Amino acid sequence: xxxxxxxxxxxxxxxxxxxxxxxxxxxxxxxxxxxxxxxxxxxxxxxxxxxxxxxxxxxxxxxxxxxxxxxxxxxxxxxxxxxxxxxxxxxxxxxxxxxxxxxxxxxxxxxxxxxxxxxxxxxxxxxxxxxxxxxxxxxxxxxxxxxxxxxxxxxxxxxxxxxxxxxxxxxxxxxxxxxxxxxxxxxxxxxxxxxxxxxxxxxxxxxxxxxxxxxxxxxxxxxxxxxxxxxxxxxxxxxxxxxxxxxxxxxxxxxxxxxxxxxxxxxxxxxxxxxxxxxxxxxxxxxxxxxxxxxxxxxxxxxxxxxxxxxxxxxxxxxxxxxxxxxxxxxxxxxxxxxx
Length: 340
Fold this sequence. Notes:
It is a single chain. This protein is α/β, with parallel strands linked by helices. The chain folds into 2 domains: 4-106, no CATH class; 113-339, no CATH class. It has helices spanning 4-25, 29-39, 54-67, 71-76, 84-106, 113-127, 151-154, 188-193, 196-206, 238-263, 277-296, 322-339, and strands at 132-142, 162-169, 175-179, 213-215, 226-227. Strands 3-2-1-4-5 form a 5-stranded mixed sheet. A hairpin with a 5-residue loop joins strand 2 and strand 3. It is globular.
C-alpha cells in the first residue's frame, strides 16, 4: 500500500503543475513548445550571459495576455524575474514575431469542403436556415485615451475609448477573421462595408456562389450573403419565429467573443490596454491567434477546470449596387420564412 503513496503524490503534483501552467500562460506545455519553435527564428539571437532566453520572452508575453496585468507585475510573477523595461522589450519582440509568423497560419478565412459541410449542418440544425457557415459581430476593446487630436474618433457611444473589432467565427468558435484597426466611434456596418472580407464575399457571390452565408445582427446590412433579423416584429408571427431561430444561431459569436476575452484578460473592459491604438490592434490579433491555438490543442479555460488586419489586405472601395443587394437579401430571407 505504502509503495503507491509516492506515485500518487507524483501524479497529483504533475496534475497541479499542468493546470497551473495553463492558468498562467493559457497554453499547454505542448502548445507552448510548438509556438516557441514556430516563432523562434523571428526572435533576436543574443549570446551574452545576461540575455533573456526566448522561452522566458514567450512566457512573459503569454502571461501578459492571460492576466492583463501591468508590465511590472508581469515581470515579477511566476519566477520570470524581469524588470519593467525588459518586459516592454520582450512584449514588442514576441508580438511582432507572433503577428508575422503565427497570425497568418492560425487565422484563416478559407474553409475546407469538410469544414464548410459541418458548419452548414450545425447552423441548419440550430436555425433551419440553409448554407450558413458562420457569424459576424463587432466587439469594443477598451484602450486608454489616445492623443487629443484623434481622441474623438476612439470615443464610442458607451462612453469610453476603444477599438471596434470586427470578428467572424465558425461553428466551433474558431475565429476566421479579425479586423481591429478601426476606432470605437465607427459603426459596425461601416467597418463591414469597407472591409476587404466583404469585397471578397461579394465578388464570390457575383461569380455565382450563393451557398455561403453569414448571420449578423441588425447593425449589419441585409444582403444575399448576410442574413439579418426582422425589425419590429409582432409576437407569435413568422417574423418573430425567424428572429428567435436567428438569435439561437448567432449566439455562438457572442460566446466566442466572451471566451476570447475571458481567456485573454488583457482584452477585458475592466483592464483597458495602456498602449497606442496601433499597438492595441496588434495585441488583439495576437490574442485571436492564441485563442485558435487553444482550440486546436483542446485547452480548456482555467475557470472551467501598426494597423495590421489579419486575413486580407484592406480595401477602401465600397461596392456599388447596394440597393440591389438589399432587395436580393430580402427575397432570400422571405424564401426562408416560407420554410418555417
